[in-house]
Amino acid sequence: MQICPNLRFFFFNTNIAIQRNMSRIIGFQRDILPSKYLGVPLTDKPLHKIIWEPIINKMQDKIRKWKIKSLNLAGRLVLTKVVLQSIPIFMLSALPAPKGVLQQMRTIQRDFILGKGEERKKLALVAWDKLCIPKSHGGLGLDDPNVLSKVLGAKLWWHWVKEPKAQWAHVWKEKYSSTWQENYHIRMTRTIKGSHIWNKAWENRDLVQKNSFWEIREGDLALFWEDRWQQEPTLLREEFLDLKKETDTKGLLRVKYFWDQPSLEDKWRTWKNTELGMTTP
Predict the structure, then answer these.
(1) What is the chain's Cα-based Rg?
(2) How many independent structural domains does the chain possess?
(3) What is the number of alpha carbons within 13 Å of residue 265 lying toward its C-beta?
(4) Among 137, 236, 241, 264, whose Cα sits 20 to 30 Å from the Cα of 163?
(5) Beta strand 270-271 with 259-260: parallel, antiparallel or unpaired?
(6) In terms of domains, do 68 and 36 share one?
(7) How far apart are CA 214 and CA 191, in angstroms?
(8) Residue 122 falls within a domain, yes or no?
């Protein structure tokens, strides 16, 4: 079989004879880590600052080419938003950056905004956190690198939850949640460690879980007590615990268990009388 030059195999703790046979049968060339895929470093070792040096250097090179003296605050703000904050997005969308790297990105942006490349240094009259507040609330609408990294990680998790039929999502399911139903991915809480990109999504899943809700529809998916539904907070709160003990006797109950099945003449559903108890299938 002809070997395809553009496709690569990466092996871990695999006998060399098996590697050769698989490469011959499938037609992929063998490769070793570290490597790159679409510009993103691939490695089986912890991520270090050194892999982020090209990103930091690119941000610094951009600033060196700009004449800060000829730019007012509005000009520096536009360049920061359009250029400096866009450079690391691709890497941040796939890999978790060390705290020191995120701090360095923030320092580069902050110093440029303040015009610290000029001969006369300028003191920061406003804290960085306030500069990141939306314009409608008095800030400049900048994106803090630490917050941006978390949001991009949560975005990965959201895409996995919403696109379970995608090929990459299927790989994640088979590797990390083979015993879970797709509808339950949004509720996953047990710690599962894996690749760098999986860990980034996993560690920021709470942003999705805390800021999403279930649409009721037939009531057969959302959990009555534990889930957020109809844009309301979860009912699993102190003021409802006594009622939960009274009605929830069989574990995780769906919303539909708490309403009467409507007849053809009914225009809407009615809730069961919890004082009389309830029955579940």
Answers:
(1) 26
(2) 3
(3) 0
(4) 236
(5) antiparallel
(6) no
(7) 23
(8) yes
Judgement on whether residues 85 and 136 belong to the same structural domain of the protein: yes
Query: Residue 17 sits in which domain range?
Result: 4-49
Please classify residue 154 by burial: count the beta carbons closer than 10 Å to its beta carbon, then call 0-12 exposed, 13-18 middle and 19+ buried.
buried
**Do 148 and 89 contact (CB within 8 A), yes or no?**
yes
Neighbours of 38 (CB within 10 A): 7
Give me the helix-helix angle, 99-113 and 145-162, nearest 10°: 120
User: 246 φ, ψ to 5°?
Assistant: -75, -35
Residue 279 near residue 249 (C-beta atoms within 8 A): no
Residue 198 domain flag: yes
Which of these three, 104, 119, 143, is where a domain ends? 143
pTM: 0.75
pLDDT of the chain along its 281 residues, tens only?
Answer: 444 456 677 776 678 888 788 777 777 777 766 677 777 777 666 678 888 999 999 999 999 888 777 788 889 899 999 999 999 999 998 888 989 999 999 999 998 888 775 555 666 667 888 888 888 888 888 999 999 999 999 999 999 888 888 888 888 888 888 777 777 777 777 777 888 888 899 889 888 888 888 888 777 788 887 778 877 887 777 777 777 776 666 667 888 777 776 665 666 777 776 554 444 44
Q: Is residue 156 part of a domain?
A: yes
Asked if 84 and 68 touch (Cβ cutoff 8 Å), the reply is no
